[in-house]
Amino acid sequence: MGEEDYYLELCERPVHFEKANPVNCVFFDEANKQVFAVRSGGATGVVVKGPEDRNPISFRMEDKGEVKCIKFSLENKILAVQRTSKTVDFSNFIPDSSQLEYTQECKTKNANILGFCWTSSTEIVFITDQGIEFYQVLPEKRNLKLLKSQNINVNWYMYCPEGAVILLSTTVLGNVLQPFYFRAGTMSKLPKFEIELPAVPKSTKLNLSERDIAMATIYGQLYVLFLRHHSRTSNSTGAEVVLYHLPREGACKKTHILKLSRTGKFALNVVDNLVVVHHQDTETSVIFDIKLRGEFDGTVTFHHPVLPARSIQPYQIPVAGPAPVTSQSPVPCKLYSSSWIVFQPDIIISASQGYLWNLQVKLQPIVNLLPDKGRLMDFLLQRKECKMVILSVCSQMLSESDRATLPVIATVFDKLNHEYKKYLDAEQSYTMALEAGQSRSSPLLKRPVRTQAVIDQSDMYTHVLSVFTEKKDMPHKFVIAVLMEYIRSLNQFQITVQHYLHELVIKTLVQHNLFYMLHQFLQYHVLSDSKPLACLLLSLESFYPPAHQLSLDMLKRLSTANDEIVEVLLSKHQVLAALRFIRGIGGHDNISARKFLDAAKQTEDNMLFYTIFRFFEQRNQRLRGNPNFTPGEDRAAVKRTRVGGGVGRGGDGGADGSWMRR
């Protein structure tokens, strides 16, 4: 398979660390996404690396026994190390602070610490087999303060740093899960819920393993993902992933089931709001999108893979070492290795090879793997880096080789404009709230984020439609139908159509001499009125004489283009028509006499000039009590009457001084 067939890949620049061996132990911190390589218990060095860390953190610590768990607090200010089942040791990494270790023992008698999680830069949670203990670390005093604790029998735990939720497995079977939510020094106990096991257990031993549970944020909501190896329904074969929605308030509910239709060893990731399920036996992966339409039974929505199963794109590990050695060919990475460990949301670690990768989705190959354009758009519009891929799909469906039908094109345009309209409405609501002064009273007021799913008219014009109309081999009827379909979609969502789209339609019609269609589009207001459009129509007069009147009609309808109408009429030497128009809208008392006298003079029609001149004299008499012109206007009148000859007040060649006086 070529690169275009793989829709999943490992990141180009992984985190490289010293591989695990008898001397070097490797740990992963899910909150900071850091890998710790601890040599000889820390005595010969600890190296900390993460995807966002430009410089690794290196230090040494005294070997006080086997390290069970090691993590930095958020912002890397305090290091916590668990070496025994009763205590956790702390070291400050704050400048000008004592680096002497201090220790905290769990409060519950006879309890064993299963692990710990940092929830902030100075707050930590101990999870024991008998409950949960929430502490505040006081680095300057080198001790801890217990904020809250809860006694509960715990089999295992899981932490989701994005949601700040710790999940505890309780009861003998382990399938009753108790979530706790942490925020700003507070610990909240959320309603517990039960995971439905595949069948009634035959024994009373632990039935739910932490290997079959994951927690991840999908489309802004926290979910618990349960990998059920055998379906509860007898007519269904294969494993499935059950999604439980875990809200901050209210009970946890089962909402989605992802059908895998196969059995074996699985692992889960979440990438770009997609659930990725890896299958080790076939060395392939499938993706699920819970936003896409599934089969709803009244309670739960069933989903099938969006695309056929594919392997992750083959990956080459560069050979490290001196220059002569690095010239060797890269070594192929063993994908889906048994040494791979998967962490949420998108982390894959190979401790035996010493690499940490972020899993990534490639959108371009999906375009050819998902033939249903409507479903493809639904999928792409939910992805982060989707804009250019969406625009390429639009161009592709308008190409000669992959031309889509008009109903399909209309569906795609409607889906794009639905997202566009949502953003415009949110932007308008935000602006109105600002103008109403709500920003002071509501600190939660935030400007809507323009995601890549917002494909506006400028994007479509620049990348798709303007290029499309230039294609010589495309039937002009299809070109016009596509342009009108996009304008129809914009109108359907009550989005104001930009004038350059109308201009594109007009230019296309003119290019193919379809003036009758242009006339109909304008007559029935298929093309919205605008000043730029009216000006474009004026420029077409030499090709299509009725365009002049169509332009004037449009300007008249706009009611805000009176000056433009006057200018158009004057430029055509229709001075009386311009004057009648101004009188009709009641603006003749404020217009410049000079402009009209100049225009009348250019016609070389003495009678017309005299008529215009008399009109303004009478206006002056009515407004100022005498027929005299103002200084700027009388100079124009003098100049025009002298040059014109014989046209003046009473036909005396302008000799009467009543209107020439300074």
From TrEMBL:
<feature type="region of interest" description="Disordered">
    <location>
        <begin position="642"/>
        <end position="662"/>
    </location>
</feature>
<dbReference type="Pfam" id="PF07035">
    <property type="entry name" value="RMC1_C"/>
</dbReference>
<dbReference type="Pfam" id="PF21029">
    <property type="entry name" value="RMC1_N"/>
</dbReference>
<dbReference type="InterPro" id="IPR015943">
    <property type="entry name" value="WD40/YVTN_repeat-like_dom_sf"/>
</dbReference>
<dbReference type="GO" id="GO:0035658">
    <property type="term" value="C:Mon1-Ccz1 complex"/>
</dbReference>
<protein>
    <submittedName>
        <fullName>Regulator of MON1-CCZ1</fullName>
    </submittedName>
</protein>
<dbReference type="InterPro" id="IPR036322">
    <property type="entry name" value="WD40_repeat_dom_sf"/>
</dbReference>
<feature type="domain" description="Regulator of MON1-CCZ1 complex N-terminal">
    <location>
        <begin position="26"/>
        <end position="144"/>
    </location>
</feature>
<dbReference type="InterPro" id="IPR040371">
    <property type="entry name" value="RMC1"/>
</dbReference>
<dbReference type="GO" id="GO:0005765">
    <property type="term" value="C:lysosomal membrane"/>
</dbReference>
<feature type="compositionally biased region" description="Gly residues">
    <location>
        <begin position="643"/>
        <end position="656"/>
    </location>
</feature>
<dbReference type="GO" id="GO:0010506">
    <property type="term" value="P:regulation of autophagy"/>
</dbReference>
<dbReference type="InterPro" id="IPR049040">
    <property type="entry name" value="RMC1_N"/>
</dbReference>
<dbReference type="GO" id="GO:0031902">
    <property type="term" value="C:late endosome membrane"/>
</dbReference>
<feature type="domain" description="Mic1">
    <location>
        <begin position="383"/>
        <end position="631"/>
    </location>
</feature>
<dbReference type="InterPro" id="IPR009755">
    <property type="entry name" value="RMC1_C"/>
</dbReference>
